């Protein structure tokens, strides 16, 4: 990377950088220390002081509230959505790149048109459809629309990557008499593996953090996912501030672990669609 | 995004052109069927079905339902333009529209200024900047719900962070005051999304050719001058893309607002998406909610088309934020 040009003393930038660090870190510090504070002490102690008696009882209370069930639901929904998205978008993107005719172009245009549309505005008909097909208050009610909403961005990214595969490679496999399916499976998919990881992370984060669909499409505690359970805790624990913030910490932990393990892929996933 | 023509079909097409001289028509036809060859259309069917049922049908459905009466459970009955007349004379809809515009414009301004500056800062090669950048992204790991709940507690006058500094002014009930609630939301929205946008600007700044800065230095341009004459103009396309993302995204901020204020106090944060939700799922007026939904859709499409035109490039693709 040639960045010598930027290597200079920059007072304003430096100040802003350190200031922003405070803006980011102080609230997170507050969340963590408060979750470790005794329930009685939150009203008396300085909110930023180190707790006098560090206690994990708030975490215990969260887990006693079926939190593991909600974690399980969130994992099921996230994994199923990502698998479904990949299963439908890989062949579609492959077709769009490999088949050059009016129909495949039309299909691509239709899908990509969805990019600039605020789809959340359609929650009323989505609710109607989910109720009509009998999926209301099931995990499927979250999986299907969540997957549908990220099809445009996912297909667009995959198409961009598939187009970079040299056509000579496709031709070589054609000459060998490989079927389209085996070209897709043995050439296209391995070649765009980084893109698949990127879109999977992007899509997974969207589903894992999604709140609106669970709010309108599920009802019972059995089908509750983490974001909705946080909101429920907020209403139910009210004065148990350490408990509520412990739930927040637990909800972020899996993603934090992923961030620590694969920061590069995470960042690529977060900015999917903008940078390549 | 790139739209280079590296499509596989190009090479056979070229070979047709080369063959054209003195080659019987039959051969040409044979070649042409080869061009259309490729995977069968079935490859796209699952994606199209899923997208059709849960994206295309709802888009039409929201328009249809805006002409209906429905309480969410019972029968759906025709209402013509009744809902539209009712909504267009409802001050809450205009209140929502106004709040949405304020939220959109102010958070766009704040986030863009901060993101450009932080993006430029992070693009520097100093080691400590890279370390700071690792922390800068932490807000992105939180779901909107988690952020909303955290800040709701953090801003509480009883046990919130305001107490830490001993300043009575900081211990106000910011979220309970109709005058301050929307501004708090704008700050929290910015806390959530500035990391993402600064990341995009960082990437864009790194792509500016160093030679431009070297030339400027030779011409004796100072740092400020370089920033305004080179860095900012070079970020033009990123600015267009990123602004579309922010603006279309802010039309649908729902989670944060719903969890932090629920639209209150005194409807002072009842932005359009929230107005739609409350009408549909709290007051069981699905027809009215659909009208608001159509308004949001139209706003989103108009804004992204306008920005697309203004930036004068179809290189740009926007995407939605959230959900």
TrEMBL record, chain A:
Transmembrane spans? 12-32, 75-96, 108-130, 142-162, 183-202, 241-261
Q: Where is the signal peptide?
A: none
Subcellular localization, per the record?
Cell membrane
Keyword entries, A-Z: Cell membrane, Membrane, Transmembrane, Transmembrane helix, Transport
Ranges for the ABC transmembrane type-1 domain?
A: 71-262
Q: Give an example GO biological process.
A: transmembrane transport
- GO CC entries: plasma membrane
Q: Its topology with respect to the membrane? A: Multi-pass membrane protein
Pfam families recorded = BPD_transp_1
Under the heading InterPro entries, the entry gives:
MetI-like, MetI-like_sf
PANTHER family the UniProt entry points to: ABC TRANSPORTER PERMEASE PROTEIN MG189-RELATED, ABC TRANSPORTER PERMEASE PROTEIN MG189-RELATED-RELATED
The text of the family note is: Belongs to the binding-protein-dependent transport system permease family.
Q: What is this protein called?
A: Sugar ABC superfamily ATP binding cassette transporter, membrane protein
Q: Which organism is it from?
A: Bifidobacterium bohemicum DSM 22767
TrEMBL record, chain B:
Iron-sulfur found in the keyword field: no
Q: Report the PROSITE patterns cross-referenced here.
A: ABC_TM1
Topology in the lipid bilayer is annotated as:
Multi-pass membrane protein
State where it is primarily located.
membrane
Q: Which GO terms describe its biological process?
A: transmembrane transport
Q: Which InterPro entries match?
A: ABC_transporter_permease, MetI-like, MetI-like_sf
Task: Quote a single Gene Ontology cellular component term.
Answer: plasma membrane
Q: Where in the cell is it found?
A: Cell membrane
Q: Which Gene3D superfamilies match?
A: MetI-like (1.10.3720.10)
Report the leader peptide range. Answer: none
CDD domains named in the record:
TM_PBP2
Indicate the transmembrane segments per the record.
42-68, 99-123, 130-151, 180-201, 245-266, 286-307
Keyword Membrane applies: yes
The protein's UniProt keywords, in alphabetical order, are: Cell membrane, Membrane, Transmembrane, Transmembrane helix, Transport
Domain ABC transmembrane type-1, first and last residues per copy: 97-307
Please give the family membership noted in the entry.
Answer: Belongs to the binding-protein-dependent transport system permease family.
Name used for this protein in its record:
Sugar ABC superfamily ATP binding cassette transporter, membrane protein
């Amino acid at each position: 990377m040639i960045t010598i040009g930027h290597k200079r003393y920059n007072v304003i930038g430096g100040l802003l950088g350190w200031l922003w660090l405070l803006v980011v870190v102080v609230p997170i510090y507050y969340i963590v220390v408060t979750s470790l504070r005794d329930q009685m002490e939150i009203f008396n102690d300085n909110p930023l002081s180190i707790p006098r008696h560090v206690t994990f009882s708030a975490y215990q209370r969260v887990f006693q509230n079926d939190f593991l069930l909600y974690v399980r639901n969130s994992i099921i929904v996230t994994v199923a959505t990502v698998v479904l998205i990949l299963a439908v978008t890989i062949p579609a993107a492959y077709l769009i790149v490999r088949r050059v005719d009016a129909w495949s172009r039309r299909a691509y245009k239709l899908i990509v048109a969805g990019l600039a549309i605020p789809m959340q505005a359609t929650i009323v008909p989505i609710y109607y459809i989910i109720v009509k097909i009998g999926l209301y208050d099931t995990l499927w009610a979250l999986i299907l629309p969540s997957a549908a909403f990220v099809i445009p961005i996912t297909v667009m990214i995959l198409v961009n990557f598939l187009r970079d595969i040299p056509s000579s490679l496709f031709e070589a496999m054609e000459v060998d008499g490989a079927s389209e399916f085996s070209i897709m499976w043995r050439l296209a998919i391995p070649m765009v593996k980084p893109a698949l990881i990127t879109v999977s992370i992007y899509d997974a984060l969207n589903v894992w953090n999604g709140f609106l669909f669970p709010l309108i499409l599920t009802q019972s505690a059995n089908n509750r996912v983490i974001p909705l359970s946080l909101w429920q805790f907020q209403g139910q624990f009210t004065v148990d501030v350490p408990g509520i913030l412990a739930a927040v910490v637990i909800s972020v932990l899996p993603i934090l672990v992923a961030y620590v393990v694969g920061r590069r892929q995470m960042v690529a996933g977060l900015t999917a669609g903008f940078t390549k | 995004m790139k739209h280079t023509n590296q499509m596989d079909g190009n090479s056979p097409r070229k070979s047709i052109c080369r063959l054209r001289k003195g080659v019987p028509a039959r051969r040409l036809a044979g070649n042409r069927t080869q061009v259309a060859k490729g995977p069968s259309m079935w490859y796209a069917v699952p994606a199209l079905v899923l997208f059709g049922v849960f994206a295309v049908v709802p888009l039409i459905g929201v328009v249809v339902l805006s002409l209906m009466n429905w309480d969410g459970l019972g029968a759906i009955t025709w209402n013509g333009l009744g809902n539209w007349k009712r909504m267009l004379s409802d001050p809450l809809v205009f209140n929502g529209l106004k709040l949405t515009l304020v939220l959109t414009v102010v958070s766009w301004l704040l986030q863009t200024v901060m993101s450009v500056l932080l993006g430029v800062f992070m693009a520097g090669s100093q080691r400590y900047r890279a370390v700071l950048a690792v922390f800068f992204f932490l807000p992105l790991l939180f779901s909107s719900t988690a952020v909303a709940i955290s800040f709701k507690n953090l801003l509480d006058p009883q046990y919130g962070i305001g107490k830490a500094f001993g300043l009575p002014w900081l211990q106000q009930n910011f979220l309970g005051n109709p005058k301050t609630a929307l501004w708090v939301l704008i700050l929290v929205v910015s806390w959530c999304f500035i990391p993402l946008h600064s990341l995009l600007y960082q990437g864009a700044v790194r792509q500016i050719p160093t030679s431009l800065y070297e030339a400027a230095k030779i011409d004796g341009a100072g740092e400020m001058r370089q920033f305004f004459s080179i860095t900012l103009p070079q970020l033009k396309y990123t600015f267009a893309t990123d602004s579309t993302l922010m603006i279309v995204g802010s039309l649908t901020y729902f989670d944060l607002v719903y969890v932090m204020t629920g639209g209150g106090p005194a409807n002072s944060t009842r932005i359009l998406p929230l107005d739609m939700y409350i009408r549909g799922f709290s007051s069981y007026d699905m027809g009215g909610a659909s009208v608001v939904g159509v308004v949001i859709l139209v706003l989103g499409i108009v804004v992204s088309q306008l920005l697309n035109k203004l930036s004068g490039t179809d290189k740009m693709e926007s995407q939605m934020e959230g959900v």
